[in-house]
Design goal:
Largest interface: A-B, 33 and 33 residues
Number of strands of chain A: 10
Strand order of the largest sheet of chain A: 4-5-6-9-8-7
Oligomer: homodimer
Largest sheet of chain A: 6 strands, antiparallel
Distance between the termini of chain A: 44 Å
Chain lengths: 252, 252
Amino acid sequence: MSIMGDRGQIAKDGKAMRLAQRPLYAQVREVLVRRLVDGVWSPGEALPSEMELAAELDVSQGTVRKALDSMTADKLVVRHQGRGTFVAVHDEARILFQFFKLAPDAGEAAFPESRVIGTATETADESERRAFGLRAGAKIIRIRRLRSLAGRTVIAEHIALPAALFPRLTQDEIPNNLYGLYATRYGLAIARAEERLKAVALGAKDAALLRVRPGTPALRIDRLARSLSGRSVEWRVSLCLTQEFHYLSELD
Amino acid sequence: MSIMGDRGQIAKDGKAMRLAQRPLYAQVREVLVRRLVDGVWSPGEALPSEMELAAELDVSQGTVRKALDSMTADKLVVRHQGRGTFVAVHDEARILFQFFKLAPDAGEAAFPESRVIGTATETADESERRAFGLRAGAKIIRIRRLRSLAGRTVIAEHIALPAALFPRLTQDEIPNNLYGLYATRYGLAIARAEERLKAVALGAKDAALLRVRPGTPALRIDRLARSLSGRSVEWRVSLCLTQEFHYLSELD
DNA sequence: GAGTGGTCTAGACCACAGA
DNA sequence: CTGTGGTCTAGACCACTCT
């Protein structure tokens, strides 16, 4: 009996027959993603080989390969010829490439330094409830921090997290690489995010934090980050000074 | 004799052997992309079937399929089960999805209306020569236009084109969908683009065009668009008012 | 019904990593 | 040397489109 369960295949004249349903490789992908979400394998750990998965799920190696290829395209796993298939890790290099799009106009991109200037746990407001799908009265962890690139403080950041997903976070030291923390300590791997960008004039408080005149134009980045399962996990608003930096967006 | 030429395969004990080289499917892709660039098939036209291509190039259908799948992922072709594989077209719907990232904060995204306010053919300055790889003295076609969304003028745009690639363009009516024109009239399909975003304060002239106060924050989008062959084809600077609009960037 | 792309399998061989 | 993922082939059948 296959772990994939009855797939709607029935014997007929000795040949397999597929009834109306999702393709097999998509079902295999679902099973494997489910296991990633459930933490069956830890970040950085190797998955079973294609052959083993094929035998266990009772499909051909080619079908497993197609599922894993699609997961590779979505950066859920990383494959190395001769070594194996590994759960993707949120190291700084990957985040710099995938999630941090601000780069200096001249010079190399680098991961920003961060300084936390305040944390609080408060009741979610209406927009936060809508973003995270929370009920009235739910708690939100708020983090404010300043980030610097090339020694210059250029980002004022406000982060909101549903408190229920991040127990005992406030007391901690907040690391520079938050997404690594989410993954290792809370099992929440950030898989994708939507960013909405606007040009705004800085208010008095943010201008003071960034040590520029009030009214200075800044790039406001509104990011909703989602876990593997598609759930909204983090809402982050970043105010960025872009005199010497730019946001890079590749369209293809 | 195969059109793919000698692929480094030699007979040995009746078995084919692959020597150190690029994978076959990548070579097949190169051949097909080459034909797209050369305009062997027009936008919207059907390519030969997988079977025909496989026979012509002397590879298996699976190898052709892998090449076509990768071209589908890069949006160079579109495939329809039961109908065939077609050269991608730059219609407004596709551009809206792929290249136009500005959307209203509330309501549906829509393709902007455009009004050309000036064109000129002038000598390329140093930054234009660098962007397009032109020699000193090369000519540049410059287009200025205003674009509106939901009846409100919110974008002031400056477009620079290497004149050598777009003969007899200035006399024409400039259509709203420029990328469609590049493809149909000049055989230049825009395949991808890099956008660099900054928040800036509008100067007196641009503010007057957009009917806002000088110093109003605007999103400056600096786009370099590339053709199928990777050549820089268009440099476009857009100043966008983002009071009621935002730039959407999906990270995944 | 004929022709297209889509799925699935099976098997062979290659390139690479590590014991 | 063994085991891994990567490439390539061949063949079967399915789902869809058009004539």
